[in-house]
Design a protein that fits this description.
By secondary structure, the protein is an alpha/beta fold. It has ten helices and 13 strands. The strands form four sheets. It has a seven-stranded parallel β-sheet with strand order 3-2-1-4-5-6-11, with helices on both faces. The protein has a two-stranded parallel sheet with strand order 7-10. A two-stranded parallel ribbon has the order 8-13. The radius of gyration is 18 Å and the shape is globular. The two termini are about 30 Å apart.
Amino acid sequence: MLVAVVGSCPLSVKPVVKYLLELGLKVALITEIEKDLPLTENLEVINPKRGFNAILGTFKVLKPEIVINLTGFLCEEDQNEYLQKLEEYTQKLVEIAKETSINRFVHFSSCRVGDYFGDDFYNLHFRLEKLITQSGLKYTVFKPSLVITNHSFLMEEIRQLAKTSPVVVVPKVRTQPIHMDNILLAIEKAVKDDVLENKVCELGGPQIMSLKRVMEELFVAAGVERNVIEVPRYLFPLTLPVLKKLSIMTFDQIERVKIHSFCFENCTPSITALVKDPFEF
């Protein structure tokens, strides 16, 4: 089976591609990432800068059965670039998938999309969910809460933060952090099993907790100690510049915790028997 993966955010793309290859699948990767990709005959890399006609031509030749759209997922770009790329790529990918008879379109949205409006991030994700579910394609839409990766970059950023700032300020919100390994298991289920066909699934970890506790757990995982202070949610915009500057979270991750981001109906336990501790590195 050939799976097409679309995205240029290393925190999501690299572990997904690595996992699919370990499953013995062939991967066509549409990405701007140029470094540290696996060297294997089972991986074909296409730069999206060649244009969507080139991607369409590649799909017609390679005939992937499944598209996994990771555009924007865990991305570091600023708001305008993020929203523009996410909308453009998803719309074009849906057109390409319809023209090339893709068997399944797997898309990543965000927890609580459809419940919260008045924000460009959530409004756009809502429109794209509708675009996909009403496209006529067979689809799976995943809506994860805050995703915790075990990437060494994250731990290094936390350690650097501990050296430069005695206190971290976060909004008073609740979230349901999920380990990246459970995201990978969900993708495997969508690729291999029809049980998730035409399903919209919220994905969360084993516990609902405050963002304050999330940050405290990350400090523990990194082997450092720092004070974490909560502020009312309406003061969140005042904390944004600090969080972005310190690179604790990417733009996409920050957007996911602007509001309470726990699942109303967590699909993770039905997808995998093991809902992993998100802070198990």
